[in-house]
Amino acid sequence: RVVGGTEARSHAWPSQISLQYSSGGSWYHTCGGSLIRRNWVMTAAHCVDRNMNFRVVAGEHNLNTNDGAEQEFSVSKIVIHPYWNSNDAAAGYDIALLRLSGNANINQYVQLAAYLPVVDYQICSSPSYWGSTVKNTMVCAGGDGIRSGCQGDSGGPLHCAVNGQYQVHGVTSFVSSQGCNVLHKPTVFTRVSAYISWIENVRRWW
Fold it and tell me: Is 46 among the residues known to form the active site?
């Protein structure tokens, strides 16, 4: 959920997926993610660094209802960035790729995301914001005390409009330990453009 946001129009973000885990015979949403190829999803490393049974649901809008647009896939491979350290999220590298058990059917409800951004980090890394906690491999959004990411958003995309096309600039990573909506503590995202070479290498060799 986004603090201070509004509910998105149904299927307005067709590259967004729901990452879910199995427990007690039921599936539960844990993180978001972006469909970057028909059989690959990009999410946050901290979403999948536990030994759990995951699935991906594309075309989802309301987690409590099924409107027929959903496509469900088991996860056949999880590739976490080799430098990710779950005990030091501020070090960065909070990114992972999931290979799906099959290819998503691309339609009006399920589409691929673009991922070619460059975003400046000077404000977010200033002393009055996150300071040295934020690296140049990260992107920030929010921090105005009104709008913010929160628990459950992890792994989901930061979309930015570039030349009339929405592109994925970030993967939701962390918020302040003081809460989800703290002034001058914007939501921090893994900057996708810093990892494009790694993404392409994983897709090529896995």
Answer: yes
